Amino acid sequence: MPRRLAPLVFAAALLAACGGSAVAPKTWAKSVCTALTPWRAALTSLTDDAQQHLAAAKTPEQAKQDLLGLLSGAETASETARQKVVSAGTPDVDGGDRIAARFAASLKAVRDAYGHARTTVSGLSTADAGAFYKEVGTAFGQLQQEYAASALDTSKVSSAPLRKAFNEVPECH
Prior knowledge:
Elements: H1 6-17, E1 22-23, H2 25-56, H3 60-87, E2 90-91, H4 96-122, H5 129-150, H6 160-168
Parallel strand pairs: 1-2
């Protein structure tokens, strides 16, 4: 291959790898739901596990470790889901780039909410059990507020073709 063509071939390959083209609404919805289903399951499983461990925790130190496991796992699961949503590309609908960005931003905000809570809990002293649990309550209250603010409802997507796709694709139910 002539040397002057090599950069053009590389650039074309790079653009193709970045997913420069839009995808059909059903394809995009399926990819998004396929990313969100294991994420939701992971959050449920992590929460259930943390509740069981917290019920058995005999010390604030044990509770702290259990909470850090929950928060770290939820943060990681949220980032994994965000990456998969980004990899889904852009739906081929009016405003598809905005919609895709909103989905990714929502998952980023959820990831960051878990990260903020993890950082807060990590810094808490366990010397005074009452103070520790009070501060945990405050940290989880903040997490709940940040989580709620980032919520994205697929039934409220502004694009009629995408709403239809989310309703029709089996992976979304």
